[in-house]
Predict the 3D structure of the following.
Amino acid sequence: MLARVAAAAVVAWATAAAAEPQIKPWTAAATPKLALPDLAGGQADLGDLRGRVVVVNFWATWCVPCRDELPSLQRLRDRFAGKPVEVITVNYGEFPQRIRPFIEKEKLALKVLLDTQKDAARDWGVGGLPMTFIVDANGRARYSVFGELDWSTGEPLQLVEKLLAEAPRGH
């Protein structure tokens, strides 16, 4: 009997672990600021991207689900090339000498912001990695998700398309 209960618990745990992460509506009152140095040596500010739908992904090189998710964020970026959609990745607590070789090895062309002190992650309520937010063209965070998703298909892609369709024209 105990063996059956244990087996049922393992199956339940495996099923829950395999479940796709849930994209949830943003419930905080305001969208936090996001202004950080980038890996290329410049500065990036979410406020400068008004008029664009922005996918903001917090990640780290040591996070296996993060590493697995990044290629789908690259595909999302490529899919919307020439349209008012941006994909920004925010590295959690690492320094350029660790990040740059990883990005080059993986052949990723994503904008990487440096949150070396993890202040932005705290402000955004990042409780684990990967954590991703979708910000509408008005600069308002609309959705968040904790966990690895394929951003180039299904619900994640549909939500970006929906927010793009809602975006004011002329940007």
